[in-house]
Amino acid sequence: MYDVAVIGAGIIGTFVARELSKYDLKIVLIDKEADVANGTTKANSAIVHAGYDALPGTLKARLNARGNTLYDQVCKQLDVPFKRIGSLVIATNKEEMDTIKVLHRRGLKNCIPAMKILTKQEIIKMEPNLNENVIGGLYAPTAGIVSPWELAEALAENAVDNGVELKLEREVIDIKKIEEGYCIYTKAENISARYVINCAGVYADKINEMVTSKTFTIHPRRGQYNILDKSVGNLVNHVIFQAPTDLGKGVLVAPTVHGNLLVGPDTEDIIDKENTATSSERIALIRKTARKTIDKIPFHKTITSFAGLRATPDTGDFIIQEAEEAKGFINVAGIESPGLSAAPAIAEYTVDLLKNLVGSLKEKTDFKPERRPVLRFMELNAEEKAAVIKKDPRYGRIICRCESITEGEIVDAIHRSAGARTVDAIKRRVRPGMGRCQGGFCGPRVMEILARELGKDITEIVKDGPKSYILIN
Amino acid sequence: MLTYEIVVIGGGPAGLAAAIEAKKNGIESILIIERDGELGGILQQCIHNGFGLHVFKEELTGPEYAEKFIHELKQMGIAYKLDTMVLDINKDKEIHAINTIDGFMTIKAGAVILAMGCRERTRGAINIPGTRPAGIYTAGTAQRFVNMEGHKVGKRVVILGSGDIGLIMARRMTLEGAKVLAVVELMPFSGGLTRNIVQCLEDYNIPLLLSHTLTEIRGKDRVEGIVIAKVDENKKIIPGTEQEFDCDTLLLSVGLIPENELSYNAGIELDPITYGPTVNEAMETSVEGIFACGNVVHVHDLVDFVTQESRRAGKNAAGYIKKEIKKESQTVHTHPEKGIRYIVPQRVRIANVGQKLDLFMRVDNVYQDVYMVVKINDKEIKRIKKKHLAPGEMESLEIQKDDLVCEEGSMISILLEKEGA
């Protein structure tokens, strides 16, 4: 019997689990996928918003503002790349300039610090590659960029190091009320817990309906992106948003923490909660839209396209509360944008909710907020590189040529808590396959290392889930 | 710090030939740096034959072709480091490299020869829409799995792109017991060698669908099917021509790109068409003393031509060390015109041209019965009749020294003219 079961190991579930692991609780974190961060967390804009966008008074506004301020500390503790590069909303006509003033006022109400409305000259100085037709914009220096999946992996690792049990490939098929709490049914096993926290992303409505009548609906809203080569990552220095209009929010252009350039997303309501396919028409549309602010984007340097699903609730705001019909069952649902930005605050808020339900929670004395630092070989200087290889020769063998990732880093990613078990899990943790060759050279070698370190036959190594076999036995 | 007269980066066919030739031209201290665990490069996974007809006048497999060079290299006592990755090069010809045995190395070279080869274009680079399941391989990656590691990658296969590796893999997968349903090509002609179309597709009744493209990939975990459609002359999809294939594997043979991240970071000028360094008649890049040869400069159709080009680079790098290359000379440029995509070399120092100048190029379309015309500053100096030209086949021509009447800044241009035009 667990004290708390967290369903869903995306950015929200891992943040909640890690926050809970500060207390004396027996916690289990459950996910249907073969790795953490394998839903919306791995496919989104990777932006930590400043917080001027959400309507004042909403949970979104409150938790975005608070969440943003928590990012520096958690990313430092967990050694996850986070850069507070600031954002610009660009106006190209008077109407858009009016919108920007609305956003600025909203930001002031949301208590967002240091925002500034800039002139054309000021903007061009900061972003020389923007189109000439910019007339002004809103600068928010507190906006940042992060690697969302690396953050979720780090949170999961730190949670496990602090006693949380992580159970992957456990798709929840039903939940039944039992005397002391709930029994969660999965194909592999049944898991009982006194309290359940539903962080199931696009499936949060389905999980909720296992214990109550239908109280909200989560619609998958697809967004597609292009990711461009590192050689063009410096095209912009800030997150560049277009001013929202009646026709839509526009697309953003931003560098990633790893130095690539990200362009997207569009917005498309779909039915299928698994449909992360991209389409030619939509990619063409985001390219066309992006060119309205920067026509210099070299799309021939695209390394891949991807799509993610926003977990859009029919309530218009985050749903973070105990289910009325199910005591001890907390929904953390409808976490669409700015969900990533709000995530650390959502975790605090959720744990406060739980504290109120339980009465009080006892803090652990031995909570370890830091995780073991990650050795990123290419970030070392020459002397450090030499020293590292001398200590462990596996750092002297480059496996991924495009991103210069060593065997030592890959082996480390496998053997950490909540470690990598699949080719894509390695890719998300240490980046082989993220580069311009997209795993053409390193894929077979990553598979060999996984097989060796996990004691498996190479034909058992899968791309992502159990059915995504790569070789035929 | 280690010091060598010449450091060759890459131990594939280009690097091997360049190093051997440099040694034959009197250079003692040579090092080859190879990132893989053995010499020979991609030849080691090309177990089909067809290599060596020009250089050795016999038909060899890839590993046999490589072995001739590796054997010679070892006999000559040329040093090499395997499993060693170059992290960066700079204009002073200082190289940083790592491996598990020597650790972190700084190597100072008198001359550098870049021979890193090329990589395959990927699904992402050409924006193929759909899901992202397992079962999508570049043809070369599949070739490595099948030929080097002894694994099967799929049972029902569609191949996108009719480049040579795709054609070779259509045959190879068939021989391994897989069913190759089709080779799908966007262009109205194949990008591969005619002999490969005959020997790899026609002999095995594998359909080649020209002017078709992939419109969708299906399957969440593993490829479950693909959809293709016909395209018009502007490469736009013709609605209603969609066809579905029930397959578990998609191989991509959609082009090769010279691997020039090291060159780019070293500040070497790259050609926007070839994606390789621009070179002069000596195969020297825009940075003095850094030479380049093989597929890192431009993608070749036959390894024999890589060998010939690399021998020139090796010989010239030796000449550079021995100070036999004339740096002061009238320099002329080559310029591709109508029908020609690119010309290598891009720069020629007239003083270093021997009896003749060799130029290499690719055409931009399939042509029948045309003239290849060479002009210097708009004055025609040569006209060669060509029965058949195709983008898949590299072309070359010679200009006699006596015809090279030019001055500093002159332009040698090449273009195609229709017969009777």
Quick structural gist:
The complex is a heterodimer of chains A (473) and B (421). Chain A is an alpha+beta fold and 473 residues long. Chain A contains 12 helices and 22 strands.
Tell me what you see in this structure:
- The complex is a heterodimer of chains A (473) and B (421).
- In chain A, helix 2 crosses helix 8.
- Chain A has helices at residues 11-20, 59-77, 94-109, 120-126, 148-161, 204-208, 280-291, 339-358, 382-391, 407-415, 423-430, 443-454; strands at residues 2-7, 27-30, 47-48, 82-83, 87-91, 116-119, 136-140, 144-146, 165-167, 172-178, 181-186, 190-198, 218-228, 239-242, 252-255, 261-264, 268-269, 302-313, 319-322, 329-333, 398-400, 405-406.
- Among the domains of chain A are: 84-143 and 219-309, D-Amino Acid Oxidase, subunit A, domain 2 (D-Amino Acid Oxidase, Chain A, domain 2); 377-460, Arc Repressor Mutant, subunit A.
- With 473 residues, chain A is of the alpha+beta class.
- In chain A, the strands form five sheets. In chain A, strands 1, 2, 9, 10, 11, 12, 19 and 20 form an eight-stranded mixed β-sheet that branches. In chain A, strands 13, 15, 16, 17 and 18 form a five-stranded antiparallel β-sheet that branches.
- The model of chain A has no long low-confidence stretch (mean pLDDT 96).
- Chain A has twelve helices and 22 strands.
- Chain B has 421 residues and is of the alpha/beta class.
- Chain B has three domains: 1-120 and 256-325, FAD/NAD(P)-binding domain; 122-254, FAD/NAD(P)-binding domain (3-Layer(bba) Sandwich); 328-421, Sandwich (Immunoglobulin-like), CATH 2.60.40.
- Helices cover 19% and strands 34% of the residues of chain B.
- In chain B, strands 1, 2, 5, 6, 7, 8 and 19 form a seven-stranded mixed β-sheet that branches. In chain B, strands 10-17-11-12-13 form a five-stranded parallel β-sheet.
- The termini of chain B are far apart.
- The relative contact order of chain B is 0.13.
- The mean pLDDT of chain B is 95.
- The interface between A and B is large, with 50 and 47 residues.
